[in-house]
Amino acid sequence: MSVRELVVLGTASQVPTRHRNHNGYVLLWDGQGIMFDPGEGTQRQMLRAGVAAHDLHRICVTHFHGDHSLGLAGVIQRINLDRVPHPVTAHYPASGQHFFDRLRYATAYRETVRLTEAPVAVDGPLATTPAYTLDAAKLSHPVESYGYRLTEPDGRRMLPELLAAHGIAGPDVGRLLQEGGLGGVTLDQVSEVRRGQRFAFVMDTRLCDGVHALAEGCDMLVIESTFLDEDEHLATDHGHLTAGQAARVAVEAGVRHLVLTHFSQRYPDPAAYERQARAAGYDGELTVARDLARVPLPQRI
Q1: Numbers of helices and strands, H then E, in the chain
Q2: Nearest-CA neighbor of 15 among 66, 69, 87, 79?
Q3: pLDDT at 1 over 60
Q4: Strand blocks (E) in 53-184
Q5: Residues 226, 228: Cα–Cα separation, whole Å
Q6: Which of 37, 67, 135, 219 is catalytic?
Q7: Rounded to 5 degrees, what are φ and ψ at 153?
Q8: How far is residue 45's CA from residue 196's CA, in Å, rounded to a whole number?
Q9: What pLDDT digit, counting tens, does each position of 142-171 carry?
Q10: Is 141:177 a contact under the CB 8 Å cutoff?
């Protein structure tokens, strides 16, 4: 059975707290594992969340501030220690190559796994697999930062009543799907397009074109909401979003499930983020992320 869910390893911004580890997220997508922004302590959070090094196929770093990347050294060494049997690809801003090099070789260890470096320098596609296309878009932060988006290819949904009307059943359904037609009946006559799922990951940024492009039409949007709305001036000054801003992005983009995260330690009440997101007009499924939570992607429409 395929599993598509977000595993939240940490939700703190800049400073961890007693209840929030530094950033860390793993998207499980039909047997593929994509890790986003491994902050300090990520390796231990993986253990607590039940995520193994063998689950990881890609690592996507949005930018090289410590709360988003200091755990990279430990994760890379754990991948090698556990002799992960498949290649792992790392995506990160090309301008931070020197930071990646330092983290990759922060200490001595034995390399046993092929880690492919795939730095990001421009917006657009990074990888295409049978399961998804991975794209990047530049964000607005004091250091170069990119957000990421996974898009599943569109499929087909067979319509039983139309199949029956054309006398197509059993193995013939599979043949029709594979060949595009059978006995004069076309695929379009007995099926409809099933839109592929879309997931976006947006971290440290002000509002910008990249935020909106990544969020557009997403089934799940994981987005930073470092500040509450009353501190919008601080968010703008430091290159961040408020809960209300993040929610308005989701409303405009038609996001089905909004996941807010990357919370400042200055706010003791997590419920305030939800209140402000709802006040901004978002009425879809909403999660205020907490460490070690597992958040399933919405069911396909």
Answers
A1: 11, 18
A2: 66
A3: no
A4: 58-60, 88-93, 115-120, 124-128, 133-138, 146-151, 155-158, 181-182
A5: 7
A6: 67
A7: -60, 145
A8: 30
A9: 999 999 999 999 998 899 999 999 999 999
A10: no
Of 207, 198, 290, the C-alpha closest to 247 is 207
Phi-psi region for residue 204, left (φ > 0), alpha (ψ -120 to 50) or beta? beta
Instruction: Work out whether the CA dihedral 194, 258, 126, 139 comes out positive or negative.
Output: positive
Instruction: List Cα–Cα distances, 120 to 90, 103, 240, 258, in angstroms.
Output: 10, 17, 21, 26
* CA-wise closest residue to 149 among 136, 139, 160, 158: 136
CA nearest neighbour of 47 among 301, 296, 291, 259? 291
pTM of the full structure? 0.94
67 as an active site residue: the answer is yes
Q: Helices 243-253 and 271-279 meet at what angle, rounded to 10?
A: 50
pLDDT tens digit sequence for 76-122 = 999 999 999 999 999 999 999 999 999 999 999 999 999 999 999 99
181 in Cβ contact with 168 (< 8 Å): no
And the tokens for 115? 């880690």
